[in-house]
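Hi R.,

Here's the chain you asked about this morning:
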Amino acid sequence: MSRRDYYEVLGVGRDAGETQLKSAYRKLALKYHPDRNPGDAAAEERFKEAAEAYAVLGDPEKRGRYDRFGHAGVSGAGPEGGPGFNPDIFADFSDILGDFFGFGGFGGGRRRAGPARGADLRFDLEISFEDSFAGAETTIQIPREEQCDTCSGSGAAPGSSRENCPQCRGSGQLRYQQGFLVVARTCGQCGGTGQVVRSPCPACRGTGRQTRDRRVTVRIPAGIADGQRLRLHGEGEHGSVGGPPGDLYVVVHVRPHPVFRREEDDLFVEAAVPFPIMTMGGTFKVDGPSGPLDVNVSAGTPSGTVTTFKSMGMPNVSGRSRGAFHVRLVVAVPRKLSKAQRKLVEQLGASMPVDKIEATAIDAERDKPFFEKVKDLFG
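And here is the predicted structure, written out as tokens:
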């Protein structure tokens, strides 16, 4: 019986590259695969035809012979699966079809499920603003899966050992015939490990793992911000079959400070200054993150003025720099006055008569929120 042109089978031109060939074959294989078309003989033949075409065109040497001599050039190239068939061409079958049909391998390859890395863990840690500013060290307790001490992680009772799986004979896979192809599925009895436990360990019930509470020391760097996380390598759950442990991620939550507000590495605070100091000038102290600071006020300072202390803010978490500390000066208006104070204010008001206060347009730049103005000022 005459066979169709391989390029026609795959629906590609004669100048098609490797990627185009693989893509065309993948579409046909997914469409006509026997698992998708049970009992459909025509679909199975189309699947075989596409596999044969790709087996030839996917091999540069066979493709060259086919381009020169047609089917006659590859007619005796593969007795295992028909004209031009080479089972090695399907060594990357999973690369073409992935695990779409649940196949763990193709062409009879023997693969076991190897060592698996342990799972990563997360721990949410709440700290104070002071600890985020100065840095700290604390100990946390986390539950995690660890290797069983009784069986050393094998899952077998003392005096016994794991045995080769009788179903897959230790390969971890079961082979099936699909037409002229041989596919392999992960063994359901051993889960792909190739081994089973006849006498389970009484301590871990054959799992090889136990849940334990572990105490871990966490070093919090100065300057850490709310929401940042710390990675502790190897402090996650233990791996299986000798695999490496996972990591522990500590997510830091910083409690807000009652006075300071943080913007990146800068700190902001507002200070209510008595009217005489704002008018006549003077000095007062304000509590900064590292201790009291002297704030110098010039005579006639308007309310809303910002005084900045460079490198007195939050340390950068990298340890290379520090932010600034910004103090906004606003006039303190007393709510209650004594008789003597009220008399003095009245005398001051009488000496500064105001017949009319002229209205002025709102200055959008002047009335921007305090923190936005400072951010604009310092980029």
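One quick note: Residues 261-377 form a domain with the HSP40/DNAj peptide-binding domain fold (CATH 2.60.260.20).

Cheers,
M.
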